[in-house]
């Protein structure tokens, strides 16, 4: 039997199993910690830092930091939420996110996080990076303008699909998602039903010709902010 | 003011109480006679270029961002084109009627906005009335019942749009080959509960516009008026139509230039000319040429062009309208308002008819077909005939887009109206007052132009009038807030 670990999350006693991350234990206890790169079916990545919490006063990513007896975890505090808000603000201006015509609007995790944190307008100047789209695949559309480099597709392709379709290239502001073929997506073994296609939290990887099939009012986050219901409702 | 002989240049910028941003320049010669008057569109949008590379199914939602007032027009024109791209020529009854309902909701709200909010101050108070009163707040203060009707007519149209597109502005209802929702019984019943009141107000609006026109006919007949060709779509039996029909053009005397032209062949009949002083092109009928082939679109052209309305109240009003000119095309610019209100009434009737149709509760929303690489979508927007033409590559990306927006077709007519009003009211006048300048704007407003189709005006919209000498030095300047 696994050892029970007890810790404090925002002053509330939480019990988890040894080896769990703070996020996993919090999820089981019904406490939502905001996230973007983390996904329940994928190995944690710790890259987006939206799930940053203070563990005994030090910033850690909740998706990768294991729980330990007696730790004090701060999540829903003004200081931590300001850190998260700043990151989301930067993500919006770092890419080319035009929610007004993005078909993921209403079901986009980045947009939903912005609403959750009360972001209504960009705080930083737009960077307007030059990014490419890849429409070569008959059933999949890749729009790098909207990519937030969460790496979900990279991990899902390897871990779940058993393929190696996506990978990061470049460094710093030049970092991009790349595909494993010089012909673009059509030259890879990507298929529309791959996990890598459905886990994208934003409108960067889309199934072609789906568009706006879900009417406004019935989209994932039309009626409640992200994290209100269980994590099951986030992007599959 | 300088004593030396001078050419005066008067600039009205921006033109107020219209959608978007434009300016008027008027050049006066040494004797203060109008040499030239022009309406300039000073915004550049670039939609035709930057949508290249985007996937075609985005188009109905992307291009509707051209406009905040009539997004449904662009949404539906693009949707019709995209239907063609996915090989669909016939929608399901539910999809077609949901789109029609959305479209008539849009006509209702857009026409109400223009007539009550933007134009009624000129009509109720007079073109040169005190500017402090001649505005929508003045209308609300002096004619509160009328202002309320205008606001609630518009609101009702927006509720229709919300019920069909999901949002009042920039919804997503029309998708390739159909729609993404039907009308629930709850939504239908909510809308039906107000329709009788809407019909009554719409009827009253026609009476108001008609009575105004007839009472002031002597003054209005020549106000910014001129003979022109008229273009619109009509139904196959010649009935008034705003969603799906063939192109009809007739000249100022009512002679048909072309009729029932298939939408896809629009560019065999129409062309556009570019002029250096404005971002708006000048469309014209090819066989007549750019000099004489320009035409008017919008309510006046549609009511002129149709043989009849297929709803009883609008048809009754249409007959009276056509009776004024013995069945020939009405070329009075200010008659746009009357025609526009007949259309508003027709849309109210159509909404009532559609809401009573159980097809709106159908579940069959989308059909599919064989993919094509090129398609054209033509509809009547509140401001006139709207063309969307796209080509798509094998990867589903847009490679070419050509949009002829309604207001573009009215470019030459608006410039003619500006020139005529300037000549009639400003030539030889010793002092150009704000009231006189408003006459120019009144003529532009009759067309309900969406100058950028459309940019949202933020904050103050000052009217700046500058008097310059022939070297371009400002010798006098007036600003109204």
What can you see in these coordinates?
The complex is a heterodimer of chains A (236) and B (481). Chain A is of the alpha+beta class. Helix content of chain A is 19%, strand content 17%. Chain A has 2 domains: 4-76, Ubiquitin-like (UB roll) (Roll); 86-210, Alpha-Beta Plaits. Chain A has helices at 22-28, 78-94, 109-116, 152-159, 195-198; strands at 4-9, 12-17, 52-55, 58-61, 72-74, 133-134, 140-143, 166-169, 176-179, 205-207. In chain A, the strands form 3 sheets. Chain A has a 5-stranded mixed beta sheet with strand order 2-1-5-3-4, with helices on both faces. Chain A is globular and about 55 Å long. Helices cover 41% and strands 18% of the residues of chain B. In chain B, the strands form 6 sheets. In chain B, strands 8-7-6-11 form a 4-stranded mixed beta sheet. In chain B, a hairpin with a 2-residue loop joins strand 12 and strand 13. The radius of gyration of chain B is 22 Å and the shape is globular. The relative contact order of chain B is 0.20. At the A-B interface, loops of A face helix 2 of B.
Looking across the biggest beta sheet of chain B, what order are the strands in? Answer: 8-7-6-11
Query: Number of DSSP helices of chain B?
Result: 15
Strand content of chain B: 15-25%
Strand content of chain A: 15-25%
Q: Evaluate the radius of gyration of chain A.
A: 18 Å
Task: Give the overall silhouette of chain B.
Answer: globular
Total strands of chain B: the figure is: 16
Unreliable runs of chain A: 230-236
SSE blueprint:
The complex is a heterodimer of chains A (236) and B (481).
Chain A: E1 4-9, E2 12-17, H1 22-28, E3 52-55, E4 58-61, E5 72-74, H2 78-94, H3 109-116, E6 133-134, E7 140-143, H4 152-159, E8 166-169, E9 176-179, H5 195-198, E10 205-207
Parallel strand pairs in A: 1-5
Antiparallel strand pairs in A: 1-2, 3-4, 3-5, 6-7, 7-10, 8-9
Chain B: E1 8-12, E2 22-28, E3 34-41, H1 47-50, H2 59-62, H3 71-85, H4 93-125, H5 136-142, H6 144-165, E4 174-175, E5 178-179, H7 185-215, H8 217-220, E6 229-234, E7 246-250, E8 256-261, H9 266-269, E9 270-273, E10 282-285, E11 295-296, H10 299-305, H11 312-323, H12 335-355, E12 374-381, E13 384-392, E14 398-404, H13 406-409, H14 411-425, H15 434-446, E15 463-468, E16 474-480
Parallel strand pairs in B: 6-11
Antiparallel strand pairs in B: 1-2, 2-3, 4-5, 6-7, 7-8, 9-10, 12-13, 13-14, 15-16
């Amino acid at each position: 039997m696994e050892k029970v670990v007890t810790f404090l999350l925002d002053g509330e006693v939480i019990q988890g199993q040894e080896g769990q991350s703070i996020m996993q234990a919090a999820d089981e206890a019904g406490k939502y910690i905001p996230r973007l790169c983390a996904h329940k079916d994928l190995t944690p990545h710790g890259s987006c830092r939206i799930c940053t919490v203070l563990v005994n006063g030090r910033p850690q990513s909740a998706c990768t930091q294991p729980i330990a007896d007696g730790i004090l975890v701060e999540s829903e505090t003004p200081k931590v939420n300001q850190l998260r808000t700043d990151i989301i603000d930067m993500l919006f201006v770092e890419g080319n996110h035009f929610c007004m015509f993005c078909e993921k609007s209403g079901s986009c995790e980045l947009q939903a996080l912005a609403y959750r944190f009360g972001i209504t307008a960009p705080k930083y100047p737009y960077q307007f990076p030059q990014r490419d789209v890849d429409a070569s695949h008959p059933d999949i559309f890749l729009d790098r303008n909207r990519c937030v480099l969460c790496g979900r597709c990279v991990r899902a392709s390897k871990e779940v699909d058993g393929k190696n379709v996506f990978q990061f290239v470049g460094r710093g502001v030049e970092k991009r998602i790349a595909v494993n073929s010089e012909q673009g997506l059509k030259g890879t073994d990507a298929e529309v039903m791959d996990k890598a296609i459905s886990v994208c939290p934003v409108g960067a990887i889309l199934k072609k010709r789906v568009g706006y099939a879900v009417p406004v009012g019935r989209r994932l986050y039309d009626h409640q902010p992200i994290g209100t219901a269980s994590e099951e409702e986030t992007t599959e | 003011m300088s004593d030396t002989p001078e050419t005066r240049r008067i600039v009205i910028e921006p033109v107020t109480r219209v959608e978007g941003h434009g300016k008027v320049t008027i050049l006066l010669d040494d004797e203060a006679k109008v040499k030239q008057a022009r309406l300039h569109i000073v915004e550049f949008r670039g939609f035709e270029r930057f949508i290249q590379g985007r996937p075609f199914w985005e188009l109905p939602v992307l291009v509707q961002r051209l406009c905040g007032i009539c997004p449904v027009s662009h949404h539906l024109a693009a949707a019709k084109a995209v239907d063609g791209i996915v090989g669909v020529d016939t929608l399901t009854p539910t999809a077609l009627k949901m789109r029609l309902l959305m479209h008539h909701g849009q006509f209702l709200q857009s026409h109400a906005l223009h007539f009550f909010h933007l134009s009624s101050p000129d009509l109720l108070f007079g073109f040169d009335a005190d500017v402090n009163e001649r505005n929508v707040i003045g209308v609300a203060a002096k004619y509160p019942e009328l202002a309320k009707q205008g606001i609630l007519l518009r609101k009702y149209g927006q509720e229709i749009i919300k019920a069909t597109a999901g949002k009042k502005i920039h919804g997503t209802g029309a998708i390739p080959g159909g729609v993404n929702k039907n009308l629930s019984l709850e939504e239908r019943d909510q809308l039906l509960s107000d329709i009788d009141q809407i019909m009554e107000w719409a009827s009253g609006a026609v009476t108001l516009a008609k009575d105004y026109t007839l009472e002031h006919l002597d003054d209005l007949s020549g106000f910014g008026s001129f003979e022109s060709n008229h273009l619109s779509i009509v139904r196959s039996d010649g009935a008034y139509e705003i969603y799906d029909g063939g192109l009809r053009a007739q000249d100022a005397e009512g002679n048909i230039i072309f009729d029932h032209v298939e939408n896809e062949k629009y560019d065999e009949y129409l062309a556009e000319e570019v002029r250096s002083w404005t971002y708006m092109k000048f469309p014209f009928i090819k066989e007549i040429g750019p000099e004489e082939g320009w035409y008017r679109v919008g309510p006046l052209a549609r009511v002129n062009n149709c043989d009849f309305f297929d709803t009883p109240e609008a048809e009754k009003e249409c007959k009276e309208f056509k009776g004024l000119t013995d069945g020939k095309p009405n070329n009075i610019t200010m008659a746009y308002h009357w025609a526009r209100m007949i259309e508003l009434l027709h849309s109210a009737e159509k909404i009532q008819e559609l809401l009573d149709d159980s097809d709106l509760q159908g579940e069959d929303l989308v059909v599919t077909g064989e993919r094509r690489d090129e398609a054209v979508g033509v509809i009547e927007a509140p401001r006139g005939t709207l063309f969307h033409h796209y080509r798509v590559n094998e990867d589903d990306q847009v490679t070419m887009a050509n949009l002829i927006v309604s207001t573009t077709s009215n470019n030459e007519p608006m410039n003619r109206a500006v020139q005529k009003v300037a000549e009639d009211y400003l030539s030889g006048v010793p002092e150009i007052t704000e009231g006189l300048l408003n006459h120019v704007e009144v003529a532009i407003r009759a067309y309900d132009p969406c100058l950028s189709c459309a940019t949202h005006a933020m904050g103050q919209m000052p009217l700046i009038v500058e008097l310059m000498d022939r070297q371009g030095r400002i010798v006098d300047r007036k600003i109204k807030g």
